[in-house]
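Sample intake sheet
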Amino acid sequence: MIAKKIGILLTLATSTAFAAGPKATPCLSAKDVKGCLAGVAIATVTTEKSPEARADGTASLLTSLAKAGVRRDELLSAASDEEAAPSYSRWTLALARRTYALRYGIDSAAQDSPQRIEAQAELLRGQRDGLQRLMLAWAACEAREVAASGTIAKWDGTLDRLCRVDAVDSASMEKDFPGLSVLAAAVVDAYNHDEASLGRSIAASRGVLSEYDKALNRKISTTERVAIQGILVVGNMLNATALAISNRGSEAAKAIEISIGHLAKAPSLGSAPEFQMTLAQASWIYAKAGMREKALATLRKTLARVDGGSVSGGERASVIGIVIETLRTLESVR
């Protein structure tokens, strides 16, 4: 069961067609690096043929541009409802459209009202498995991070109510794999800036990961070993993200190093598009930790991978979006 679940971890798109499009790496030599990268990502995602990949990639990129302060309204104009996409993808797109629109003082579409977004989220929570419930909460938490003090009121409390994991969510997560609810708690506590709870949840999360680490010393099948290493990749990445959000940079850097280490031990995972996001997230975490050279080196490696044509257009846009966020973070920590 775990082996089946690991295949969907951090998946942002299901398109099997790899993205071609313009290369992103040359943008690092451009005068406006972030603007150049945004152009590449927009060109890639708007020509993606899969409605699901297009919706997911557009939603992720819109949120990243809003967080990084990069305004590209042509992406918002192109972000129309994807009727052929799954309901979750359409929900994330609506959430991202409103997030971007409020960030730049644009009138958001009527279908993106906070009441409708919340109602759809609650409906989705009853239909999704544990990991997807976590991603739903995570998306709401991210949207709230973007909202300025003057615009958060326009969400009518929706993001506060959705940025949480309740007992039903936790029970569903445990069906995915034991300990997922504990790993999720640390991220949500960090986004809610609850330092007391975060201290407890990080300790509990490390305990869960320690048990999975011990399992690697037992006699298990290759399939189980890869599945457990996949959990360790994702679990340590979640911890690193939580610690980075809470400005505990050195601890975050250690956690992401552990995550990358497990990824290196499982080549079959490292070559899967689903885990490309771990490397992109690592560059942002290094940037938050003030490790400029490490962040830039990881960022270049990330762009080289997506330029290699091993991911879909939606995933490519999502990865480039994180790279843009990393560059913005590096600017802020100089």
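Comment: Residues 1-18 have pLDDT under 50 and may be disordered. The CA atoms of residues 110 and 116 lie 9 Å apart.
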